[in-house]
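Minutes, project huddle
Topic: does the predicted pose make sense with 4'-deoxy-4'-aminopyridoxal-5'-phosphate bound?
PN asked that the exact inputs be recorded in the minutes so nobody has to dig through chat later. Recorded below.
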Amino acid sequence: MTLSANTQTLLNRRAVLGAAYRLFYAEPLNLVRGQGVELFDGDGRRYLDAYNNVPVLGHAHPAVIEAFTRQASQINTHTRYLHDTILSYAETLVATFPAPLRQAMFTCSGSEANDLALRIAMTATGGSGVIVTSNAYHGVTALLAGMSPSLGLGVAPAVRTVPPPDSYRTSGDVGAAFGQAVAEAIADLQREGIQPAALLVDTTFASDGIFVGPQGYLDQAVAAIRAAGGLFIADEVQGGFGRSGQLWTFLRQPGLVPDMVTLGKPMGNGHPIGGVVTRPDLLDVFGQRSRYFNTFGGNTVSAAVGLAVLSTIQQQDLPGHAALVGAELAAALNSLKDVSPLVADVRGVGFYYGVELVTDHQQKTPATAEAKAVVDALAQAGVLVGVCGAASNVLKIRPPLAFQSEHIDELMQALRGVLSGMPGQ
Ligand code: PMP
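Predicted holo structure (tokens), as shared on screen:
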């Protein structure tokens, strides 16, 4: 028997990479090239990328390639030497945040950014308790695995979970319900003698199912953690760099200034960069008590790439583009309610949407198998999206910000075709 090239690759992969990695799609893709919002497999088949937030400017963007090659051909060192590029980058970056968020530190990933933010929070507050949402994902380190209940391993002893501000399943004021849940989690920590250090939330609540709530929906929760002596860490690893129609998702909330913001994924358009933007007083305390050296974090090439990505986002006003063209996407996705009774709730902003599928609107029963079938059928049709949510029943639509109206048409044609062909329609 001769095996197909993909089957052989799957076997090789299992043999050499082991059991812990997962693949997307019933028929995994072997992608060899990307350009803008298009991806191509080894047979030259084209896919529309409506999923990947990392290549925020689009795959193989020339500004990133140019910055990378220019800097890599000169020098690549670390933060123990002086270099102007990291300063230009840090200055440009922190200037996009409200005061007093005026300092930045750099890492190689979103996980390292969250890990560093937690170290700073624990040092500055003296606390160790952390509150996260019930299906959160915050990263790969041992510390963060204990704060990422979506991994299915439970949480660490000093961590408490709260339900996300779920606008679909909460009746009444989501902000009040979320604030109340955080207050109860704080009280629970305190009862056990654990001082709260931080409320750590993804400002898009991506793995919880995407909830970018109404104005003020985080205010009560943030007030509660601060009243208890803890800090508010906004994890913008998913929501940052223009996705929400603003450069930072928390900016949609008037007056909300986190104590720390963590960054990653789109920050290098595919190059591994992460970071923490925070207040000088917090870094002063951290720097007095400890030190931080991350061999590759903030290296010269990464700083040059990060600067190119951020400058391009600003020059092209990609947040504005996401807001404008994203509104078309929102309207189109809402029209799917007329195409299939599975479509129960469409939520999101800019270029980030969750389309929740249920089998029963009264009971709100998650259509988990159906969501997987839709995502697999879309991939077969040449359009890539994903799923999220505790029950994996929310279609996750999160394209590069280079997405245009014509791509929305292509995505919608595929979505309508697949949804109208689902059994029971
Ligand atoms: N925070 C959030 C909200 C994330 O979605 C992720 C990655 N999925 C991380 C942190 C971790 O980032 P990384 O994979 O770059 O370590």
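Observations noted during the meeting:
- The pocket of 4'-deoxy-4'-aminopyridoxal-5'-phosphate is lined by residues 109-111, 114, 137-140, 202, 206, 235, 237-238, 264-265, 274 (CB under 6 Å).
- The CA atoms of residues 181 and 317 lie 37 Å apart.
No decisions taken; revisit at the next huddle.
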